[in-house]
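QA checklist item 7 of 12: single-chain prediction sanity check.
[x] sequence parsed
[x] length recorded as 301
[x] structure emitted
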Amino acid sequence: MIKRKQDSVLKVTESAQLMDFLMAKMGGMARSSVKQLLGQRRVKVGNAIQTRHDYELKAGDSVTVLSGRGNIELRHPKLRVVYEDDDLIVVNKQPGLLTVAATPGSREMTAMSILRDYVHRQHPRANIYVVHRLDRETSGVLVFARSPELQEYMRTYWRQLVTERTYIALAEGVFEKPEGKITTWLTEDKRNAVVYSSPVDDGGDIAITNYKVLRSSADGRYSLVELHLETGRTNQIRVHLASLGHPVVGDRKYGHGNESSPIDRLCLHAKVLSFIHPVTEKKVRFESPVPKEFNRVMNND
């Protein structure tokens, strides 16, 4: 009987970079061969796949070298996997891509459909479940669960699990105050998919956004703004910035539309998402770089 090749599990006893650790532990394996293992996504630290050769290991970490040909890598211009383990997949979404289909049965390509195909290629019975959403034209960090139970848990305890949600927006005009807190009550009209804001409690959902202006353009047309969410309501940032008279650049629904935008997109980006991992109970943090076109617009003024 032919035995199936087993995964190699290696214990870390002292701090080291992943490349150095593997070269020392894998029987004199060449540096190019170790890089190939990483490129084939055959190395896990804990229960997460790791591809960075300079990843810093700590004493007590567990490194697994997977047998076989490794995991299939997701290659798509609109979606990039930044983290995955047995429970979650975290991606960086580009603008122009819906998180999930707008209507049942839709054949439009979405982040969900791309990831579903990706996990099916790893295992035919695998599936993926949306935890939260980003608007079609909003880019940045997005999280999916690998089981319906985990999806339900994360949705139920989302506010307790999340420790930081930071967005970057290119907004119209120069703000009167360089920083502040916006608190309003939001009500969504399902008929026209528009969210309305009230400065007083009118029965809607309370929404709180903290903002800080990073810089404004010399001609006063734009401001680069950092936003921290205390709540996560539908269209919250877009509605809140519009309520201040500084809508997100390119916002057709709540602002002046793409005709006033120097780039053809809604200029909103989910930069940082930090939360308590629902299984390991450790804090994890993911950051997506600010889109180059945002800085290009600010630097051209």
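[x] summary fact logged: Confidence is low (pLDDT under 50) at residues 1-5.
[ ] second reviewer sign-off
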